[in-house]
Write a structure and sequence with these properties.
The chain is α/β, with parallel strands linked by helices. It contains 12 helices and 12 strands. Bound molecules: 2-keto-D-gluconic acid.
Length: 319
Amino acid sequence: MSRPVIWIPRRLSDATLDRARRDYEVILKDEDTAGTADEIIALSAKVDGMIPCHSEHFSADVVGRLDPRLKIVANHSVGLDHCDIPALKSKGITVTNTPDVLTDATAELAMLLMLGAARHAVAGDRVVRSGAWDFWSPAFMVGKQVTGSRLGIVGMGGVGRALARKARGLDMEIHYHNRTRLAPELEGGATYHDSLDSLLEVSDFLSLNCPATAESTGMMNAERLAKLPAGAVLVNAARGSLVDETALVEAIESGHLAAAGLDCFVTEPGGNPDFARFDNIFMMPHVGSATVKTRDAMGFRALDNLDAFYRGETPGDAQ
Ligand code: 8YV
């Protein structure tokens, strides 16, 4: 039997590509750039499966124009907001993601954002690196202490819980809001808030760790940001669409927020040029899961899902 043909639009880890080539006929894109709608549609007539990233968008329009040859979209991501899942399913296309394996790397990055935002990492690095550091005072670059502060987590899934575990190492008091309250063994002593507004009121640091959905789009708007304690720090390592970026600029400009740490933006790649005015916005370019170990694990998880599909089984991460 001939081997299934799969399209891998982005530069996945070497170990992933080696394993993929061992088991499948692999078509790679010439350049490591986001697959466009036209490319996705054209390739769907040439391949049986795809391993896209969050950079390839399967909107209802794109899905409507896919060739019936394509049978599985085995995403290399936990987030699925780039996929219109009902549209894909109604076309009989199996959709999978890669949960769990990027939990720790993403929580690590959220922690980095929290610490970097709280302790003036952008300004500190710049002043030393540029050779402009000619002054020191006890009043210089005084930040906000993370240890012992209250951390509010929106979305207590895998990443939220991993962040809570790491934050306990800094003696943080953990609060969370989630659609449903977790079992005590998963809560680990964290305080549950049945409304987002109640969580905001106690969050010296607020970390967004929930998926981007129609309901969560623009969730952190002006009204919600105003509910955070004065001097709070906002961290977003989930999705840019959760934050109203204009309202965030206003909250930073007014001083209501002390700082923000962002790995995700409404526009990606690119980010928001308005944020560059503020040294107290510490930014990374959507690299939450970008560690060697995690990239291999994500690639292998996507391949595990493909393998199960081609064995005639329902993949473990089928949606
Ligand atoms: C990934 C992510 O790097 O998995 C996700 O949902 O946001 C990222 O950490 C990316 O999606 C890879 O496709």
